[in-house]
C-alpha cells in the first residue's frame, strides 16, 4: 500500500530524513516511533506530496508521490499534528467543505457526512461551531473528515498529542473500529511508547534513519530478555544456584531475586522443573518499548516536550481545547 | 476550471464574514473617522473643488479606502489560515492552487463590494445624491478595483509567513497607496514628482472612476481608468496565482 525507497530530505545542510526504505501492507497499522525532530513529520509531508524529497522515491497505492500527486492526494486522508479545522464553521460545514474540495459526488455527500459524524460520535454536535468543541472532539472530527472521501491510507501525525489519557483511549478505540470495518491502512507517527503498542509494526526512527523495524513484541524481544523475579525459600542458596546453572547475573533485594532471561515465559517451566531450592513465586515482566529505545540509541525517548515551539503548540491546543 | 472549489473557498469566507459581526462594525469606524472628523474638520479651510465641498469631494475616496482595506485584509486572512492550520487542509486537497487563489480573490472582492455599498448609506449625510443606475455602475467598478487589490493581498500573503510584517505592509503599502491616489486632494496643481507617483498608482484610476460615477467629475478619460484597472487586475491576479502556486507551506 505504501512503498518507500531510499527517501531523504535535506534542510539547509541537515538531513531531516536520511535514506529510509520500508513497505506498509494493506490494512496494517504502521507506526513511526521516534523523538521530536527525528524526521517523522518530514516523512509524512513527503508522502502526502506537501514536500519534495531531496532523493528517493515513494508510492502510495501504486501512485508515485512525485509524479502523480493528484492521485496520491485522492487516495489519502491526513490528520495533521496541529489542528486544521476552521473553528468558525460548524462540524457539518467543515465536513461539507472537505466533501466539495475532494469531489465527493453531490448525491452521496450528506449520507457520508452523517455516516462519519456517527462514527465519531458527534452526530448531536453537527451544527455546533467547532470553536466550542473539546480537544478530543476536534480530533475525532478531524479523523472523521479525513475519512470522508474514503481514502485507502490514513496518515495520522501524532494523533493524540496533548490529549488526556481517557481521550487518547477513546480515539484509539475509534481507530481500531475503523480499521476493522473499513480495511483502511493507518500510518501514524508518535513519540508515546504506549501508543506505539497499538501498531502492527513499528519503525523506530532517530536522526532521520530507521534503526529498527518490527512488530512491537519482536522489537522488545530483539533487544533484551524479559525481567524475571522469583521468590524462594532460601534466597542466598537460590541466587548461587541460578547464577551457576544459567550464567546470569542475579540481583537480590527485598522483593526477591531478579535476572534477565530471553523468552522468559518459555523459561519459567524449565526453571520450576529443575529448581533445587523450592520456588514460591515467579513473575515475568516484559521489557517496554522505552527499554527498546534506550537499548537502540543509548538515550531515553523524551515524552515531555522539548522545544519552545512545541510548548507553544501544546499550549495553543490546550487553550483551544478548553473552550 | 475547478468552479466548485472556487465556490466553496468563496462561500467559506462569506460565512465567516457574516458570523463575525464585529468585523463589519469595526470596518465602518475608519471611514467614518476620515469622512466626518477629518473631512468636516478640513472643509471650512478648503475652497470648493469643481463645485463640490471637501466632504463631497473625498466621499468617493473614502469608498476607495473601504475597498483597499477590506480587500487587503481579506487576502491577508490566508496568513491567518496558515497560522491556525486550516490552510493545510486546503493545500493538501487534490485541487489546483489556482482555484484556491481565485476563490480567495472573488471572496475578497465580494466582501469589498458589500462594505463599499454599505458606505453609500452615508452619501445623503454628506449631500452626495445617489440614483439607482449609479449603484449599478458602481458595483462593476468596485469589483474591478477590489479584484486587483485582493490580488496584491494574495501576493503579500504568499510571501509573508507571519503577522509580524503586517504593520509594515499597512504602513508602507496600503497607506501610501491610499494617500497617493488623489482620494483626499485633487491631482491638478501638484508638483510633478508627486503627480508622477499618483499616475503610476493603480488606485488613482479607481478613485477617479468612482468619482466620475458618483460626482460626475474626473481627471482621466473613462477609457484610461477602465483600461488601466483592467490591465492591472489581470497582471496582479496572474502574479498572485504564480506566487501562491510557488509559496512553500
From TrEMBL, chain A:
User: Which NCBIfam families does the annotation name?
Assistant: drrA (TIGR01188)
InterPro entries, sorted: AAA+_ATPase, ABC_transporter-like_ATP-bd, ABC_transporter-like_CS, DrrA, DrrA1/2-like_C, P-loop_NTPase
The record's subcellular locations are: Cell membrane
BP GO annotations: daunorubicin transport; doxorubicin transport
Gene Ontology cellular component list:
plasma membrane
Q: What is this protein called?
A: ABC transporter ATP-binding protein
ABC transporter domain boundaries: 2-232
Similarity field: Belongs to the ABC transporter superfamily. Drug exporter-1 (DrugE1) (TC 3.A.1.105) family.
Query: In the UniProt record, does the keyword Translocase occur?
Result: yes
**Key words, A-Z:** ATP-binding, Cell membrane, Membrane, Nucleotide-binding, Translocase, Transport
Q: Which domain of life is it from?
A: Bacteria
This chain's source organism reads candidate division TA06 bacterium DG_78
TrEMBL record, chain B:
Q: Which InterPro entries match?
A: ABC2_TM (IPR013525), ABC2_TM_bact-type (IPR047817), ABC_2_transport (IPR000412), Nod_factor_ABC_transporter (IPR051784)
Tell me where in this chain the ABC transmembrane type-2 domain is found. Answer: 22-247
Q: Where in the cell is it found?
A: Cell membrane; Membrane
Q: How does it sit in the membrane?
A: Multi-pass membrane protein
- Any transmembrane segments, and where? 28-46, 58-80, 101-123, 135-157, 169-193, 213-244
Q: Which GO terms describe its cellular component?
A: ATP-binding cassette (ABC) transporter complex
| Annotated keywords | Cell membrane, Membrane, Transmembrane, Transmembrane helix, Transport
State the superkingdom.
Bacteria
Q: What is its main location?
A: membrane
Any one GO MF term held by the record is: ABC-type transporter activity
Q: Enumerate the Pfam families for this protein.
A: ABC2_membrane (PF01061)
The yes or no answer to whether the keyword Chloroplast is present is no
UniProt xrefs under PROSITE patterns: ABC_TM2 (PS51012)
The record's comment on protein family reads: Belongs to the ABC-2 integral membrane protein family.
What name does this protein carry?
A: Transport permease protein
Amino acid at each position: 500500500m505504501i512503498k518507500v525507497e531510499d527517501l531523504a530530505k535535506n534542510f539547509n545542510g541537515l538531513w531531516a530524513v536520511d535514506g529510509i526504505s520500508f513497505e506498509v501492507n494493506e490494512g496494517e497499522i504502521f507506526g513511526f516511533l521516534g523523538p521530536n525532530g527525528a524526521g517523522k513529520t518530514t516523512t509524512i509531508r513527503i508522502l502526502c506530496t506537501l514536500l519534495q524529497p531531496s532523493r528517493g522515491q515513494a508510492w502510495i497505492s501504486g501512485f508515485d508521490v512525485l509524479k502523480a500527486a493528484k492521485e496520491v492526494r485522492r487516495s489519502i486522508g491526513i490528520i495533521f499534528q496541529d489542528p486544521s479545522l476552521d473553528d468558525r464553521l460548524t462540524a457539518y460545514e467543515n465536513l461539507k467543505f472537505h466533501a466539495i474540495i475532494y469531489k465527493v459526488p453531490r448525491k452521496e455527500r450528506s449520507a457520508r457526512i452523517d455516516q462519519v459524524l456517527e462514527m465519531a460520535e458527534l452526530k448531536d454536535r453537527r451544527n455546533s461551531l467547532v470553536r466550542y468543541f473539546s480537544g478530543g472532539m476536534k480530533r475525532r472530527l478531524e479523523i472523521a473528515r479525513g475519512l470522508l472521501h474514503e481514502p485507502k491510507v490514513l496518515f495520522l501525525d501524532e494523533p493524540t498529542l496533548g490529549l488526556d489519557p481517557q481521550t487518547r483511549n477513546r480515539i484509539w478505540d475509534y481507530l481500531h473500529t475503523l480499521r476493522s470495518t473499513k480495511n483502511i491502512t493507518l500510518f501514524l507517527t508518535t513519540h508515546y511508547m504506549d501508543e506505539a503498542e497499538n501498531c502492527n509494526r513499528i519503525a523506530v526512527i532517530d536522526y532521520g534513519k530507521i534503526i529498527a523495524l518490527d512488530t512491537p513484541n519482536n522489537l522488545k524481544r530483539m533487544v533484551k530478555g524479559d525481567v524475571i523475579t522469583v521468590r524462594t525459600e532460601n534466597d542466598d542458596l537460590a541466587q548461587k544456584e541460578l547464577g551457576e546453572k544459567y550464567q546470569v547475573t542475579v540481583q537480590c533485594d527485598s522483593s526477591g531475586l531478579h535476572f534477565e532471561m530471553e523468552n522468559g515465559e518459555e523459561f519459567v517451566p524449565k526453571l520450576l522443573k529443575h529448581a533445587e531450592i523450592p520456588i514460591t513465586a515467579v513473575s515475568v515482566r516484559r521489557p517496554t518499548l522505552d527499554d527498546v529505545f534506550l537499548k537502540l540509541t543509548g538515550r531515553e525517548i523524551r515524552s515531555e516536550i522539548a522545544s519552545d515551539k512545541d510548548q507553544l503548540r501544546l499550549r495553543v491546543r490546550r487553550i483551544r481545547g478548553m473552550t | 476550471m475547478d468552479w466548485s472549489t472556487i465556490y466553496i473557498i468563496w462561500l467559506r469566507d462569506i460565512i465567516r464574514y457574516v458570523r463575525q459581526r464585529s468585523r463589519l462594525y469595526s470596518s465602518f469606524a475608519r471611514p467614518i473617522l476620515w469622512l466626518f472628523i477629518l473631512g468636516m474638520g478640513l472643509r471650512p479651510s478648503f475652497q470648493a473643488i469643481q463645485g463640490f465641498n471637501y466632504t463631497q469631494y473625498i466621499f468617493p475616496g473614502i469608498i476607495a479606502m473601504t475597498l483597499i482595506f477590506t480587500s487587503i485584509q481579506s487576502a491577508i486572512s490566508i496568513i491567518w489560515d496558515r497560522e491556525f492550520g486550516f490552510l493545510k487542509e486546503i493545500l493538501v486537497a487534490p485541487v489546483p492552487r489556482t482555484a484556491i487563489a481565485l476563490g480567495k480573490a472573488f471572496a475578497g472582492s465580494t466582501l469589498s463590494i458589500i462594505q463599499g455599498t454599505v458606505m453609500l448609506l452615508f452619501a445623503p449625510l454628506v449631500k452626495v445624491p445617489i440614483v439607482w443606475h449609479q449603484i449599478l455602475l458602481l458595483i462593476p467598478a468596485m469589483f474591478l478595483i477590489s479584484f486587483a487589490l485582493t490580488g496584491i493581498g494574495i501576493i503579500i500573503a504568499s510571501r509573508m509567513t507571519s503577522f509580524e510584517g503586517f504593520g509594515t505592509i499597512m504602513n508602507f503599502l496600503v497607506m501610501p497607496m491610499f494617500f497617493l491616489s488623489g482620494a483626499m486632494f485633487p491631482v491638478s496643481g501638484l508638483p510633478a514628482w508627486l503627480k508622477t507617483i499618483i499616475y503610476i498608482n493603480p488606485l488613482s484610476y479607481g478613485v477617479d472612476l468612482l468619482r466620475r460615477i458618483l460626482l460626475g467629475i474626473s481627471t482621466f478619460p473613462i477609457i484610461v481608468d477602465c483600461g488601466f484597472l483592467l490591465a492591472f487586475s489581470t497582471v496582479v491576479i496572474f502574479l498572485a496565482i504564480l506566487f501562491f502556486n510557488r509559496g512553500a507551506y
